[in-house]
Amino acid sequence: MKRLAFSLALLCLTLGAAAQVTAGTAKFKVGDQPAWSNPAFDDSAWQTLSLDKDWTMQGIRNPNNFAWYRIHVVIPSSLKKAAVTSGMVLLDLGPVDDADETWFNGQPVGKTGHFPADPEGFSGNWQKPRHYLVSPRQVRWDKDNVIAVRVYNGGDPGGFYQREVRIGEPELANLAELTVGAENGKARIVLTSRTKLSGELRLETTDVLTDTQTGSETRRVRIVPGKETVVTVPIQDGNRLSAIYYDDRFDDLIAGSYSAPYILTPQAPATPRYNGPLVFGVRPGSPVIFRLAFSGDKPMKYAVEGLPAGVKLDPDKGVLSGSVAEAGDYPLVLIARNEKGEARAEFTLKVGAKIALTPPMGWNSWNCWGLSVSQEKVMSSATALINRGLADYGYAYMNIDDAWEAEERAPDGSIVTNEKFPDIKGLADWLHANGLKMGIYSSPGDRTCGGYLGTIGHEQQDAETWNAWGVDYLKYDWCGYSKVFNADPDKSVAAYVRPYLKMQQYLRQQPRDIFYSLCQYGMADVWKWGHAVDANSWRTTGDITDTWASLYNIGFQRQTELYPYAGPGHWNDPDMLVVGKVGWSNSLRDSRLTPDEQYTHISLWALLAANMLIGCDMAQMDDFTFNLLCNNEVNAVNQDILGIQAHRDVEEDGFQIWSRPLADGTLAVGIFNLNDSSAHVDLAGCLAKIGLEDVKNVRDLWRQKDIPASTCIIPSHGVRLLKVRR
Ligand code: GLA
User: Fold this and answer.
1) Contact of 521 with 496, CB cutoff 8 Å
2) Residue 596: strand, helix, or coil
3) Does residue 426 share a domain with residue 451?
4) Is 543 tagged catalytic?
5) Is 215 found in the same domain as 282?
């Protein structure tokens, strides 16, 4: 592996930067007219926008609509020689939010995503950099050239947002693509190119858990435009295949890799086993909605000892309902029986002012379905939550994110759902009957981030409507409120608190417990005042995505100082989980995180006492993802009743050690290898670094096994999650 990394670095150094010219601004207009692709069109009256900020940030609101950019650029003839030699000129537009169609000097050159009127229906691709190729003959050398870009935006923000446009000589990576995935237990390498190529494909497999090479080979390959060159190779669980294509003509390479999942969680026993939280908080008089989380063979019969008056149990479903008038701690024994045996768990029902005594566990529609969420999709994931057994591990909230709202309010001003949610009350009733809870999303502004109606001026009415529907969780997202904020000279912390205080007042007047989830990306150190608006959690950062860079930034870099602010009833929220099939749209794909990055993700969220909201389509959940989300010993760290968020104790040479004390007197310890290569790690040495010498017992929580504190291998971006008894 080392040798491979070295040769890669060397090549990158010796390759000079390709000749190019850039443009940082464009003429811009909202609307859609075919004539705007014509280079001769007079756009001098259009406004000028910068290409490194989305149009929303530049004061334009244009959700679910078209707008055009016309980028003018003089291409110097000094680029001509290189362009003629490679036969192509690259228009590197960077990413565009969401779908675009592009013309160069009046000729169509490419399209990414689909528009609403396309037969496929709308699908955007806001993260993909647009690389369009034109022939040197299409260029007007030393003269004005016009790149006309027709953009469809499926919800603000929209348009160009990252950087300037680059025009020049293409590199191999702009012409050819190498992807590695899996199919029927084999790794599948796919090479495509927009020009004829030939070169060498080098393949190497490594077992990540033992850090040993398990195979290597080199093949000659040809790539023809319009055709996929496919190579498949067998791959074992826990192996990483790295593929590098070296091209003869370009003397350059493209590379990709695929890591096959491996399951660490041991299979749950057939006998009943309790996996849920050990406390549950409810306010006096509020509905109790709680599902007993026992794994094991079904059917099961449930019983509860010590139930207070007013609460009843459905003995077949294991669902508690009713309400308790008197505040107090009610010790219960939760019992489940099946053909194989019985399990009992000591539990406390805490009736009092506090809810969310452990971090919320459940699902949210955003990371999978984005704005395409529908009642049907929520039902399908809820059904899978029960049938697949995730409900047996305490996952209970089914949260609908943005895009449930109708275009307009009802004549009486009340908020209504759009056609995708024909019966939201029915959905809530069904969830409640199964011991699950329903969450909803809105904004204190006039619009949500997706461009849907927000609550402004209707806060009380909306809180009452949600209560009538049976909402148990509100994610309240700043977004459109920035208009109110920007118009007000007051920029004190109070100005950030104001909209959340207002909704708190109305939410808490409702006769049911509504988890109050603040979403304003951490502005004004929300963790310092979130509890003052009775929030149950607050997002600490911007949106997460399924890349290592995002996970690293949000999970590791942005959480280190936040541990003092979390505790029973109020949690830091580093955003939803990015494991399983995600996509933020109608088209889903497997999370791009490697299996080790996913173990790191869940371990870290457990240590951070973070909201555990699954972001994938549960109806399509594979065994790896299920086992990742349903390891009872790992989840017990997240749900520990002390609610103490982990502290980062060590950061050294790309390793981090985080730990948190648990209610049983032990310590949960995560040792993370954030390096790009795997490492041999001396566990005793790591524990000594955090003051844990001569420990009585070390348990590997993923493997659910006591282990010696000796040397072990931690794969790149991977973790050892331990429970240590002093
Ligand atoms: C913001 C939030 C996301 C999601 C979207 C919905 O980006 O941070 O989590 O709710 O809005 O539009």
Assistant:
1) no
2) helix
3) yes
4) yes
5) no
Helix spans in 57-138 (H)? 80-86
State whether 669 and 711 are in the same domain: yes
Nearest CA to ligand 1 atom 11: 449
CA distance 629 to 617: 13
Cβ 356 vs Cβ 286: under 8 Å: no
* C-alpha–C-alpha distance, residues 119 and 144, integer Å: 35
DSSP label of 417 = B
477 close to ligand 1 (CB < 6 Angstrom) = yes
Q: How far is the CA of 116 from the centre of ligand 1 (A)?
A: 22
Among residues 114, 110, 184, the alpha carbon closest in space to that of 148 is found at 110
Of 645, 679, 706, the position where a domain reaches its end is 645
Q: DSSP character for 36?
A: G
Q: Is this prediction's pTM over 0.70?
A: yes
End-to-end CA distance of the chain: 38
Which residues are CB-neighbours of 659 under 8 A, at least 6 positions away?
A: 607, 646, 647, 649, 667, 668, 669, 670, 690
CA 521 to ligand 1: nearest atom = 8
> Containing domain of residue 691, as a range?
648-725
Pick the catalytic residue from 98, 207, 392, 477. Answer: 477
Q: Give the separation between CA 414 and CA 455, rounded to whole angstroms.
A: 10
The span from the CA of 42 to the CA of 35, in Å, is 10
CATH of the domain at 86: 2.60.120.260
**Mean pLDDT split into 10-residue runs, the chain, 726 residues:** 31 49 97 97 98 91 92 94 83 96 97 93 90 94 97 90 93 94 94 94 97 97 97 96 95 96 98 98 98 98 98 98 98 98 98 98 98 97 98 98 98 98 98 98 96 97 98 97 95 98 98 98 97 98 96 97 98 98 94 98 98 98 98 99 98 98 98 97 97 96 97 97 97
Are 598 and 631 members of one domain?
Answer: yes
Q: Secondary structure of 438-464 in the HEC alphabet?
A: EEEEECCCCECCCCCECCCCCHHHHHH
Residue 307, classed as helix, strand or coil, is coil
For CA atoms 598, 603, 604, 605, the dihedral sign is positive
